[in-house]
Amino acid sequence: MTRLQETQVSDLVELEQACTAMYHDIGFDAAEVPARTWNDIAHLPRHHNVFVAEADHEVAGYLAWRDESPGVAYLEELSVHPRFQRFGVGTRLLQAFEEDALRCNLHDVVLRTFEKATWAQVFYAHHGFSPLGDQASRKVLGWRDERSGARPLTRPGEVLMWKSLRAQ
């Protein structure tokens, strides 16, 4: 597990293409779920903490997150190359992220996923995430209220999920 290094960017572009293909296979088009480009990935660390997981010196997955007002960790991306799925890579990335968020004194996590991406919802639920509703923490509800205003917070087919890190 490392922070993003420039030598990993090209491998992450290939990983992005393989992962977005999974979404395209279930009916999403490239406009709905675009693959990040070399520049997109290289610039992620400007506003995100980025972790990269390697297996046998090969990039297996990555995770990008950022601190959002009012003190909520927003999980922007968690992708594991299809060749490395179901080997604990995503779990290890999630653990590194949660440890990092706690070091930053952030105890609540929010993420977006797609309704049709049932594998993602199952993964997140297995790791303690639940759909964002009125039962969420005060900070998460504040995050939701700050972002929603008079417009929808999600696009059709998206789901917001959240988790508290306090019990850990």
From TrEMBL:
Q: Where is the signal peptide?
A: none
Q: Which residues form the N-acetyltransferase domain?
A: 1-166
Checking InterPro entries in the record gives: Acyl_CoA_acyltransferase, Bact_Acetyltransf, GNAT_dom
Annotated keywords: Acyltransferase, Transferase
Q: Name one GO molecular function term.
A: acyltransferase activity, transferring groups other than amino-acyl groups
Task: Report if keyword Transferase is assigned.
Answer: yes
Which Gene3D superfamilies would you find in this protein's record? Answer: 3.40.630.30
Keyword Acyltransferase set for record: yes
Matching PANTHER family: AMINOALKYLPHOSPHONATE N-ACETYLTRANSFERASE-RELATED-RELATED
Q: What is the protein's given name?
A: GNAT family N-acetyltransferase
* Organism per entry: Polyangium spumosum
